[in-house]
Write a structure and sequence with these properties.
By secondary structure, this protein is of the alpha/beta class. Helix content is 39%, strand content 17%. The radius of gyration is 14 Å and the shape is globular. The protein binds 1,3,4-trihydroxy-5-OXO-cyclohexanecarboxylic acid. 1,3,4-trihydroxy-5-OXO-cyclohexanecarboxylic acid (DQA) binds next to loops. It is an enzyme of class 4 (lyase).
C-alpha cells in the first residue's frame, strides 16, 4: 500500500530550525525514519516536502486520484490555507494530520488548523515520533479493512 508523507513550508529546515521547538532530527533523518518505518510495516512510503503551495496541492490531487493514504504536516498552511483543506477533502483514503510541536500550547494563531476537520485524525506534540505513529495507524487500519499493506 502506497502512503504519501507530505510536508509543508520550512519543514525542509528541520534539525536547524528552532530546535527547542522542533528538535534535532534533520529533514533527511525524518525521510529515512519514515521510509524505514514503512519497510517494517510493509508500506510503500513516499516522503516529500515543499515550500510552494501549488506543489502540495498537486501532490494531494495525485493521492486523491490514486486513492492513497496521506500523512500530512501542512506546517503554517494548517492555520489558513483553505486551498490545502479543499484538496485534503478530495482524498478518498485516510488522512492523518501531524504536527511535531503541540500547536495548542503555542501562540494562539496556531491553535486552529483548517485541515483538522477533514482529517481522519490528528497527532500533535509528540515530536517526529508522530510520523511513525501515523504510519503505524495507517498500516493497522489497512489490515483491519483488509487492504494489502
Ligand atoms: C508545525 C506547527 C505549525 O504551526 C508551524 O507553522 C510549522 C510546523 C509542527 O509540525 O509543529 O511549520 O506544523
Amino acid at each position: 500500500m502506497r502512503v504519501y508523507v507530505l510536508n509543508g513550508p520550512n519543514l525542509g529546515r528541520l534539525g536547524t530550525r528552532q530546535v527547542d521547538v522542533y528538535g534535532m532530527t534533520s529533514y533527511a533523518d525524518l525521510v529515512s525514519m519514515c521510509v524505514e518505518t514503512g519497510q517494517e510495516l510493509g508500506l510503500d512510503v513516499v516522503v516529500r516536502q515543499t515550500d510552494a503551495e501549488h506543489e502540495l496541492l498537486g501532490w494531494l490531487h495525485e493521492a486523491a486520484d490514486e486513492g492513497a493514504a496521506v500523512v500530512l504536516n501542512p506546517a503554517a498552511w494548517s492555520h489558513y490555507s483553505i486551498a490545502v483543506r479543499d484538496a485534503c477533502a478530495m482524498l478518498r483514503a485516510p488522512l492523518v494530520e501531524v504536527h511535531i510541536s503541540n500547536i495548542h500550547a503555542r501562540e494562539e494563531f496556531r491553535h486552529h488548523s483548517v485541515v483538522s476537520a477533514v482529517a481522519t485524525g490528528v497527532i500533535c506534540g509528540l515530536g517526529v515520533d508522530g510520523y511513525r505513529l501515523a504510519l503505524r495507524h495507517l498500516a493497522s487500519r489497512a489490515a483491519v479493512e483488509g487492504r494489502s499493506a
